[in-house]
Specification:
Blueprint: H1 3-20, H2 23-27, H3 40-44, E1 48-56, E2 75-80, H4 86-96, E3 106-114, E4 120-129, E5 151-156
Parallel strand pairs: 1-5
Antiparallel strand pairs: 1-2, 3-4, 3-5
Protein name: Histone deacetylase complex subunit SAP18
Keywords: Signal
GO cellular component, one term: nucleus
């Protein structure tokens, strides 16, 4: 199944689940996939909230994230799973950032998280292109050592 089709199927199933199932069934392992025509992972794993910050031309500075509640204003919040790929995230960013839709646009992805001393670190994890396919497209958040609570910073170039 193509990445876009898989993503749309996941999104549709999540919307259906959120409107039809009690929260315990959505987030817990109380149901079985046999009783619902839904893939098992939806019933066993809750989606995570991914806070995505976009900037044109470069990444944000790590200091931009230092004060909680005063993160950069250009934020998009996405509910997803750790197996989401950079291509899926690219397609979502393209929906909200017109600059990312340009034919020659490149999107650089970086995780932002506090180090052991509490200072924020920005670690570049991959690059995708708006129109073409690249090797980084298939990298999933989990493969890149994403931790729940990390921010995702996207430089649109």
């Amino acid at each position: 199944m193509r990445a876009e089709s898989l993503f749309k199927a996941r999104l549709h199933a999540l919307v259906v689940l959120m409107t039809c199932l009690p929260l315990q069934q959505l987030c817990g392992s109380h149901g079985s996939s046999a009783s619902h025509d839904i893939p098992v992972f939806f019933l066993q794993t809750c989606p995570l909230l991914l806070r995505v910050f976009t900037k044109i031309g470069s990444h944000h500075k790590p200091e931009d994230f230092a004060v909680r509640g005063k993160e950069p204003k250009d934020e998009v919040q996405i509910y997803t799973w750790k197996d989401a790929t950079l291509r899926e995230l690219t397609d979502l960013v393209k929906e909200v950032a017109p600059e990312a839709r340009r034919r020659n646009a490149k999107l650089s992805f970086a995780f932002v998280y506090p180090d052991k001393h509490g200072r924020f670190v920005l670690r570049v994890v991959g690059m995708t292109h708006s129109s073409g396919r690249r090797p980084d497209d298939l990298k999933a958040l989990a493969e890149l050592n994403f931790q729940i609570g990390d921010y995702l910073d996207v430089a649109i170039m």
